[in-house]
From TrEMBL:
Keywords annotated in UniProt: Membrane, NAD, Oxidoreductase, Transmembrane, Transmembrane helix
One biological process term in Gene Ontology: lactate metabolic process
Record has ATP-binding as a keyword: no
One Pfam match: Ldh_1_N
Coiled coil start-end: none
Lactate/malate dehydrogenase N-terminal domain residues: 11-148
Record-annotated Lactate/malate dehydrogenase C-terminal domain positions: 153-315
GO molecular function: L-lactate dehydrogenase (NAD+) activity
Binding-site residues for NAD(+), renumbered to this chain: 16-21, 41, 101, 124-126
The name this protein goes by in its record: L-lactate dehydrogenase
Pathway: Fermentation; pyruvate fermentation to lactate; (S)-lactate from pyruvate: step 1/1
Catalyzed reactions per annotation: (S)-lactate + NAD(+) = pyruvate + NADH + H(+)
Amino acid sequence: MLNNFSVSERKVAIIGAGFVGASIAYALTIRKLAREIVLIDIHEEKTIGEALDIQHGIPDMGISSVRAGTYADCKDCDLIIITAGRNRKRGESRLDLIAGNSAILKDVVGQMKPYYTKGVIMIVSNPVDVLVYQCTKWMGLPNGMVFGTGCILDSSRFTRLIADYTHLNTEVVKATIVGEHGDAQIPIWSRASIAGVPLQEYCENVGLKWGEEIRKEISDKVREMGATIIKGKGRTHYGIATCVCYLAEAVLNQRLTIAPVSTMFQGEYGIEDVCLSVPSIIGVNGVEKRLEERWAEEEFQAFRQAADKMKKVLKTL
Ligand SMILES: NC(=O)C1=CN([C@@H]2O[C@H](COP(=O)(O)OP(=O)(O)OC[C@H]3O[C@@H](n4cnc5c(N)ncnc54)[C@H](O)[C@@H]3O)[C@@H](O)[C@H]2O)C=CC1
Ligand SMILES: CC(=O)C(=O)O
């Protein structure tokens, strides 16, 4: 399965040209990751404006053709990114968005599906784990071809906070959040490392204070980070745009990577019929495999609780 490569035309559709969709289009362009980017949104005039604005960058800094389009442009896309949907307001949780954004996703999938011929579908809209579940069921594609950005953004925040605490560059920190992109997220402290050295051992080595109090402070900050940013500026979009670029590179350039993204479980960790994030191998077919890692017992327990919580949420749909 991992060797099932095909030549990608690097055509990307982004459905939802709001802050997140436009930031993704901009980031993909300056990273030169796509040959063609089509923005699709119910607000046609705004979408044309976003596409023109991105197209007018210095040519040497971006080679994509960026334009506003329609659902017919989803034909032959290598990657379709869904960002349509409302953002949470101050004080709301991501799960408060279910009814509204699920209806929007239904509309989007209903309009996109007749034109879908191939390619991976990446969900960004919230609540991402719930919407990945619905889109997976509605599209009926092989497992992993629909996936959500899930906990990649949380893991990026986690990595940043550990790097800040240890005064190191983020590149040497390896740290992952799994579970829900939401309150039931789980930091996998048992496997967090600095250049391959377990985090606790590293801190002892360099004489940095370490223990439950510091772990809790960092975990709480990561869980609240989305809300903290929303309190400040009303939304988040730059962080997720770079995460999407990273994942798009794996799909479009067949650059296999491992990241904690959300897909439909099929018995891994004894869990099925629910979408959550675990470190997964990502390539041209989306999620090729969910890795089953050896976490600490309390991390497994928290993960199983996250799955139970998500199953209860799915029953309300
Ligand atoms: N997964 C993650 O880590 C993150 C997810 N998000 C989520 O991304 C979503 C988008 O956020 P923003 O771009 O800030 O919101 P926004 O309000 O700026 O943009 C949403 C866009 O969706 C469009 N839209 C609404 N209904 C549509 C439909 N039926 N068909 C096509 N387009 C439609 C709107 O016209 C609008 O342009 C939200 O659900 C937000 O919570 C945001 C940041 C991080
Ligand atoms: C909006 C959101 O889901 C986040 O920034 O985490």
